[in-house]
Write a structure and sequence with these properties.
With 483 residues, the chain is α+β, with helices and mostly antiparallel strands. Helix content is 44%, strand content 18%. The protein is built from 18 helices and 15 strands. 23% of the residues are buried. The structure holds iron/sulfur cluster (SF4) (2 copies). One iron/sulfur cluster (SF4) is lined by residues 243, 248, 284-290, 301, 317-318, 321, 331-332.
Length: 483
């Protein structure tokens, strides 16, 4: 087979910008097909999760809250405080590793199926646009048409609905930051009493409206850092939405192909060299439907491009064409460049399975750390720079500092008990009740019978009780004389 001629000229321009640098507005044809249907269902589930979650409470606390302003984070009803920062760092590291490994293996699967930008753009705003203004070509015609009453009604109603949805999204995102009760309060009380919250809502709404009514695919193409990183994360084994150039090329109109077949039949009576000049066409009939449905305006037949958000619209469009011309589906499909070149349709290679296992292990470790985290954290340290003191002929004492972090929303008393025999705890003043989401600190002495000490260092265990309920157990050392 002849090598495919790749001019790479498509890399010199962006489909959404003309030679003068002016933005070319994309009017994608409405997608339809099996992938689009599944993506619609997935989007409904994710949107329901996004909009319902702020209303879910666990023991009076939000199910999820990311209050960066007050440094208060709640995951699955569990309160995380600045003291849990190590968990946050670990989770972030896992997320970065996860994103890199996931992208190396599965390409931009996230962009097409989970990313809020794609879901809102393609499954909410774009659907409303199709509903009000019609399919891509109808939208193009409407844009060029003079301003009639019909056009004004369509344009104004579309923008009004867009802004209303932007307000809804903005309030939902705010609910994840300050909590749904606070959002309700800001929305229902006079503006003069909550002008800061009101300004935040307006700014958020304006930003979402701008993104979905004007910026659109430019967010994925030029703004999103994840999109920009694709070039360094993908390799020839990454699974992407790819055009099978081996099967599709040389492309050509189906009529031409028939002509060529006719010509080939005629050529049976001509010299062999003439027949050789008429190579058979590939499966791509150059209908350009895959280009027309693309929301970023690219031609996937040119090869994998940064602009591709893996929305699957071109797969559906091409499958429909293949059905009509009675060729197998999958001329555009999920596959790797290597898979297409070798013709081996093996998505789950040992490398993919290995990466998936690593990802799974990381997720399990994180889940374990999150679920095994205690609600009351106790830190007990011997006061630095202090040796033992003699209390009397029998007892020696060490001074300790304690820090108790209450990650619950309850207030409760604290009591420290020494597990080992021959010793006692003497607090410096009373240990105060721990308040909700609060930290208490103080000092206490441990006095040990010198006869039970094991030497310079004796290992001790302190149990922390609240109303006779054991809530934590801490190990520490007691310093004594060398025996
Ligand atoms: S939809 Fe399929 S057949 Fe039509 S141009 Fe695209 S790849 Fe070729
Ligand atoms: S090339 Fe295909 S998958 Fe990629 S953005 Fe365009 S239509 Fe979506």
């Amino acid at each position: 087979m002849k090598p495919i001629q790749d001019s790479e000229a498509y890399r010199d321009k962006i489909a959404t910008v003309d030679e003068t640098g002016k933005r070319l507005w994309i009017f994608p044809k409405k997608p339809k097909g099996r992938y689009y249907n599944v993506r619609t269902i997935v989007s409904i589930v994710l949107l329901a999760f996004l909009f319902i979650t702020p209303f879910i409470k666990v023991n009076g606390e939000p199910f999820l809250l990311f209050n960066i302003l007050e440094r208060k984070f709640i995951l699955f009803g569990l309160l995380f405080m600045p003291q849990d920062f190590h968990l946050f760092v670990l989770a972030m590291l896992t997320l970065i590793v996860f994103i890199i490994l996931f992208t190396v293996v599965y390409g931009r699967l996230f962009c097409g199926w989970i990313c809020p930008q794609t879901i809102f753009m393609e499954m909410v705003f774009r659907k409303i646009e199709y509903w009000i203004e019609g399919d891509g070509n109808a939208q193009k015609r409407l844009n060029k048409a003079p301003w009639t009453t019909d056009k004004i009604i369509k344009k104004v109603s579309k923008q009004a609905i867009f802004f209303a949805i932007a307000v809804l999204i903005s309030n939902t995102f705010l609910a994840y930051i300050i909590g749904i009760d606070e959002v309700k309060r800001i929305a229902t009380e006079p503006v003069s009493q909550n002008w800061q919250g009101f300004i935040a809502m307006i700014l958020f709404s304006g930003a979402f409206y701008f993104v979905f009514s004007y910026m659109r695919e430019q967010v994925c193409i030029a703004v999103c850092p994840y999109g920009r990183l694709q070039g360094v994360m993908l390799d020839k084994n990454s699974i992407v939405i790819a055009y099978d150039h081996i099967r599709g090329e040389p492309r050509g109109k189906i009529r031409k192909q028939k002509n060529k077949k006719t010509s080939t039949a005629k050529a049976a009576t001509t010299p062999e060299s003439a027949v050789d000049m008429l190579p058979p066409l590939g499966d791509c009939i150059d209908c350009k439907l895959c280009v027309q449905v693309c929301p970023t305006g690219i031609d996937i037949r040119d090869g994998t491009q940064l602009e591709c958000v893996n929305c699957t619209a071109c797969i559906d469009a091409c499958d429909e064409v293949m059905d009509k011309i009675d060729r197998p589906r999958g001329l555009i499909r999920y596959d790797s460049f290597a898979g297409i070149e070798t013709g081996k349709k093996k998505l789950f290679t040992p490398r993919v399975i290995g990466y998936t296992i690593v990802l799974g292990v990381l997720l399990i470790v994180n889940a374990f750390l999150l679920t095994s985290r205690t609600n009351v954290e106790v830190l007990i340290l011997r006061t630095p720079g202090m040796l033992y003191q003699e209390v009397d002929d029998t007892y020696l004492s060490n001074l300790y500092n304690y820090q108790i972090i209450n990650k619950t929303k309850d207030e409760f008393p604290i009591e420290l008990r020494l597990v080992e025999e021959g010793g006692r705890i003497r607090t410096v003043g009373e240990i105060p009740n721990t308040k909700a989401a609060d930290v208490i600190e103080g000092a206490f002495f441990i006095e040990m019978d010198r006869n039970v000490l094991e030497g310079r260092k004796t290992r001790l265990t302190i149990e922390v009780y609240s109303e006779d309920k054991l809530i934590n157990r801490v190990k520490t050392n007691f310093l004594g004389p060398v025996k």
